[in-house]
Structures are given as C-alpha cells and as structure tokens.
UniProtKB/TrEMBL annotation:
The chain holds residues 1 to 111 of 136 of the full protein. This is HIT family protein.
Length: 111
C-alpha cells in the first residue's frame, strides 16, 4: 500500500490539518517553507492526470480554503499551489497530492 494511503487510513502518523470523508491534508515531512501542506484524496489516485472531475473539484476546493487559512494564520505574502504529475516532473509519491507552500517577501521568514 502506498505511503499516502497509509497516512489516510491512519497506519502511518502525520500532522493532520484537515479531514473530511474524501480528503485529508497534513504537513509535509520535509517542508519547503513553514506551513507546507499536502492536500490528498483518501482514495488512491496515481496522479493529477488520473483524477476524476468530481474528486479534483473537491480537492481543489479544500486546497483553496486551506490556502486562505494559511495566508491569514501564518501572515505569509503568497502561496504556491502545485502538483507534480509523473516521475519526470518530480512526483516522488505516486498518490495524487496538491502542495500548498507559503511564501514570504522576506525569505528569512520561510523557515
Ligand atoms: P512530490 O515530490 O511527489 O510532489 O511530493 C511528495 C511530498 O511528500 C514531498 O514534499 C515529501 O516531503 C512528502 N512526503 C513524503 N513522504 C512523506 C511522509 O511519510 N509524510 C509526510 N507528511 N510527507 C511525506
Ligand atoms: Zn495511495
């Protein structure tokens, strides 16, 4: 079973910041910046390319809500919202996920 499926079913621990019946969001174990969050469908979907429209819509809806929360809670100046699809594009975990990476005008505040 893949690592994000194991996080979704609770076998592997993670710092969860959001959960509903279809989606889970948790902090990245190797954050690019403080607050780096991953938004993940609970069902195993290999990548963005394989995601059905309804799930994609819900994942992005949750991603937007969490991005807005990060903006106000962390007082960051911007946020990268991205997904890597396939190994050649940098995907290392073969379970669809959207990265939320808070950004700061002063990069010294990123960590
Ligand atoms: P990708 O390279 O596939 O776009 O992103 C995978 C992300 O998952 C990386 O940023 C990596 O740090 C994170 N990651 C990998 N394994 C784990 C884990 O076991 N727990 C958590 N919280 N994040 C993980
Ligand atoms: Zn999986």
């Amino acid at each position: 079973m893949c690592i994000f499926c194991e996080i979704a079913n609770g076998t592997i621990p993670a710092k969860r910041v959001y959960e509903d019946d279809q989606v889970i969001a948790f902090l990245d174990v190797a954050p690019t910046s403080y607050g780096h969050t991953l938004v993940v469908p609970k069902a195993h979907i290999d990548s963005f390319l394989d995601c059905d429209p309804a799930t994609l819509h819900h994942v992005m809806d949750v991603a937007q809500k969490l991005a807005r929360q990060l903006m106000s809670n962390l007082n960051c100046d911007g946020i990268n919202v991205l997904t890597n699809a396939k190994e050649a594009a940098g995907q290392t975990v073969p379970h669809f996920h959207v990265h939320l990476i808070p950004r700061y005008e002063d990069s010294a505040k990123e960590n």
